[in-house]
């Protein structure tokens, strides 16, 4: 039956494609792709050749309409983004909406995702739990590039207790880690997950202050693709800090 298969592809290492993804990509009639040149190369690596349809950020509405037309003609279609899971800091959401509105099934074919890969090696201590939950996290993705907008967004996260996950580009990573350190506090834990699954893969865990120094120490460490995981605000420290304030107020009011 006609359906849209939303297929995750590798985030670097070509061996990370799933068997099911290969099966689906082999079976479908057409592959809609964020970048048809990249995707043609990716498919060729697995010996797959399919008619391609360009569906990127700038034509997503129009591409969605074309995908629906092909589905109405009885086709099965796969959608892949440049890397990882479509719809996560990548196009895909508008296509899914249009396909569902037209009455067709949207079937996820899960696989690689940079944020899940980074979180899987973050370890303990990044998330401070409010209720009895464990390992909560908030995915932020790319921060705004403008200084003021970025500061406003980070300020709004200052008391957030869960681990926060950011995506960042090489030319902005230093600036971003510096902003995180200044606004959220330099002693929080930071996980720098760089070039995951690739040749120069590097996972470094430190405080934000140390992480900044580590990045500055060698320009090579600022190259590639980054996931940053930052420790959430520690409610214990906040309450002890506010208890401290209360005690101080009490002393001040009662002192002669
Ligand atoms: N849809 C993708 C996913 O599922 O993770 C994310 C696409 S987004 C346009 C690209 C960003 O994801 C990069 O700037 C980087 O922050 C992160 N990323 C992608 N691949 C990565 C890798 N191999 N190592 C570290 N971060 C990666």
From TrEMBL:
Its EC number is 2.1.1.198. Belongs to the methyltransferase superfamily. RsmI family. Residues 4-210 form the Tetrapyrrole methylase domain. It holds the Pfam family RsmI_C. GO terms for cellular component: cytoplasm. The gene is rsmI. This is Ribosomal RNA small subunit methyltransferase I. GO terms for molecular function: rRNA (cytosine-2'-O-)-methyltransferase activity. Its main location: cytoplasm.
């Amino acid at each position: 039956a006609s359906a849209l298969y939303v297929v995750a592809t590798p985030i670097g290492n070509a061996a990370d494609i799933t068997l099911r993804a290969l099966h689906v990509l082999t079976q479908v009639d057409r592959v809609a792709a964020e970048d048809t040149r990249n995707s043609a190369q990716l498919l060729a690596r697995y010996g797959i050749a399919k008619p391609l349809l360009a569906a990127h950020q700038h034509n997503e509405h129009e591409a969605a309409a074309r995908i629906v037309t092909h589905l109405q003609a009885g086709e099965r279609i796969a959608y892949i983004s440049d890397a990882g899971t479509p719809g996560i800091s990548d196009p895909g959401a508008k296509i899914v909406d249009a396909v569902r509105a037209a009455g067709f099934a949207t079937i996820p074919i899960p696989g690689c995702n940079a944020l899940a890969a980074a979180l899987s090696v973050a370890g303990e201590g990044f998330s401070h739990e409010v209720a009895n939950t464990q390992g909560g996290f908030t995915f932020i993705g790319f921060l705004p590039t403008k200084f003021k907008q970025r500061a406003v967004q980070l300020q709004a996260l200052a008391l957030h207790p869960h681990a926060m996950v950011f995506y960042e580009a090489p030319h902005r990573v230093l600036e971003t880690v510096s902003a995180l350190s200044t606004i959220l506090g330099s002693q929080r834990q930071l996980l720098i997950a760089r070039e995951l699954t690739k040749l120069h893969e590097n996972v470094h865990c430190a405080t934000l202050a140390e992480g900044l120094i580590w990045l500055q120490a060698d320009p090579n460490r600022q190259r590639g693709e980054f996931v940053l995981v930052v420790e959430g605000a520690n409610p214990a420290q906040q309450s002890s800090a506010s208890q401290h304030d209360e005690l101080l107020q009490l002393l001040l009011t009662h002192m002669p």
